Amino acid sequence: MKIVYLTEIEEQYVKLLAKKYGYNFSQMCRYALLHIDDVSAKMKIKVTVEHSDLIQKRQRELSAIGNNINQIAHQVNIFAVQGVLPEKYFTDVIMPALDKIFELYAEINRDQQRIRKKLYSR
């Protein structure tokens, strides 16, 4: 018996294929490994790995965005409590920055949805 480690995305992909072809998870893994010489299978594995790497990269970017949002919120709260933050600063500086962050967040989510669609469609 051997243990194979998969990313969450890879595991989901194998489960989806197994369901599609009427195999259980282990059977699908064995089938894929035994038919690795198939050009189509090699290409699908390559694409899956590449997309998995991109999704992981995007997850790191999402974490950075979350960190930026927390820093902005923390600073806004400090200024609000101290009475230092004028409303104009909030509307002219803080809100546009938050809007940009949310735009990037939405773009990342759209990219991930497109990738998942490509990974799981045939």
Could you state the order of secondary-structure elements as H and E? HHHH
Number of strands: 0
Gross geometry: elongated
Identify the quaternary structure here: single chain
Mean pLDDT across residues? 80
First-to-last CA distance: 31 Å
Strand content: under 5%
Short descriptors:
mainly alpha
Q: What does this protein look like?
A:
This protein is an all-alpha fold. It has one domain (8-120). It is 84% helix and 0% strand. The chain has 4 helices and no strands. The protein has helices at 8-21, 25-34, 39-82, 87-120. Helix 1 (8-21) crosses helix 2 (25-34) and helix 3 runs antiparallel to helix 4 (87-120). The longest helix has 44 residues, at 39-82. The protein is elongated. The two termini are 31 Å apart. The model has no long low-confidence stretch (mean pLDDT 80).
Summary of the model, kept short:
The protein is 84% helix and 0% strand.
Topology (SSEs and partners):
Blueprint: H1 8-21, H2 25-34, H3 39-82, H4 87-120
Helix pairs in contact: 1-2, 3-4
